[in-house]
Amino acid sequence: MEKAEACLKFINNKLKEVEESKISGNIEKYFFNLSSVVSDFAFVGDLYYIIEEYEKAKKCFSKAVEFDMEYIKIKREIGDKDRENFPIILNNGKNIAFL
């Protein structure tokens, strides 16, 4: 229980970094921090589940999913920009390479 509470304090500090990187527009740092927060919330959820604190585990898993959805959204946006900057060469309808 103490380990889970300590991890939550760490996550709260990490959430401040997430917000700062989002505000500053540093997309790479924001993307990295989101990934970290997702795995941290999932880890704490596992800890709570092991000690049978199911409501707390559920809240942590919900937060992990919430931030994972944001992470996926950013990942898609980055991917879309990459495809715009490096279009795919098509040969007979098959993807060959990025320019």
Please give the share of residues in helix: over 70%
| Main β sheet profile | 2 strands, antiparallel
Low-confidence stretches: 95-99
User: How many β-strand runs?
Assistant: 2
Average pLDDT, rounded to a whole number, is 81
Taking strands numbered 1, 2, ... along the chain, how are they ordered across the largest sheet?
1-2
InterPro entries: TPR-like_helical_dom_sf, TPR_rpt
Description:
With 99 residues, the chain is mainly alpha-helical. The radius of gyration is 18 Å and the shape is elongated. The relative contact order is 0.11. It has a two-stranded antiparallel sheet with strand order 1-2. The model is unreliable at 95-99 (pLDDT under 50). The protein is built from three helices and two strands; from the N terminus they run H-H-H-E-E. The longest helix is centred in the C-terminal third of the chain and has 32 residues, at 54-85. It has one domain.
